[in-house]
Each structure stands twice: as C-alpha cells, then as structure tokens.
Specification:
Layout: E1 14-20, H1 26-34, H2 39-44, E2 47-53, E3 58-60, E4 63-65, H3 67-76, E5 85-89, E6 95-99, H4 105-113, H5 116-125
Parallel strand pairs: 1-2
Antiparallel strand pairs: 1-5, 2-3, 3-4, 5-6
Length: about 130
C-alpha cells in the first residue's frame, strides 16, 4: 500500500481510488454522479471512496488529502496524471479492478459481491453460516 497508510483499512474496508486529472474531468464527474443515491449500498459493502486530483489536493469523504500525498499515490499506483483511473482494492489489500475509464456502479458492486469475503458477509447478514 502507500504512504496514506491505506494498510490501516485492511480487513475492515474495501477502497475505491479515483484518480482524475481535475475535479471537472468528464469521466470523474460521471463516476461520482453514478454513486448518488447509492449511499446504503456503498456502506453495506464497507466501501470507502478516495478522490485524487493530479492538479491539487485529494479527498476521502470530507477529509482533505494533502497534495504531497496525492502525488505519492499517483507514483505508488503508477497512474498517468493526465488520465482518469479507478482502482478497487479488496479488504485483503489486493487490487481487484483497475480501469482507465468510467465504470458503471453495478459492475463495481458485482465485483465486490463476488469476492469470497463479501459472500461470507452476505451469508452472515441473512442468517446463514
């Protein structure tokens, strides 16, 4: 993981890392818009969304990520600063998806729902073993 101490989320949360050239990038705006109204689904999947901008600070929820950490994240994940990227990181810390374009929310949720840990979580929530 990287200097943001993403390792602190391991085994607790899944991470969605959005890397964008700017806050008004078309793919980024479309991706963010796709999460509107899906807060319950995001929470149910233990998903935290990080937003990194190559031209400035980043954000995790309402917390600001300093520009130096943003630059380091671009380097650590080998991201081209001029292109939108989305990474899904599982609770085990592994990269489960890396795309360079907008990804429909249902696809992200389906990838998560197919993960063995998520299937165990769903069984527990439904009263199964």
């Amino acid at each position: 993981m990287n200097d943001l101490k993403l390792v602190r989320f391991r085994w607790k949360y899944r991470l969605l890392l959005l890397f964008s050239p700017s806050i008004d990038d078309e793919a980024y705006l479309k991706q963010i818009e796709s999460f509107q109204g899906k807060e319950a689904e995001i929470k149910d999947r233990d998903l935290i969304i990080f937003r990194f901008f190559s031209n400035g600070e980043g954000f995790c929820n309402s917390d600001i990520i300093p520009f130096e950490e943003v630059k380091r994240s671009y380097q650590d994940f080998h991201i081209n600063k001029d292109q939108f990227n989305i990474l899904l990181i599982g609770k085990d810390g592994g990269v489960k998806m890396h795309k360079k374009q907008y990804v429909q929310t249902y696809i992200i949720f389906n990838i998560i729902d197919q993960m063995p840990m998520r299937q165990n979580e769903m069984r527990r929530k439904s009263g199964g073993f």
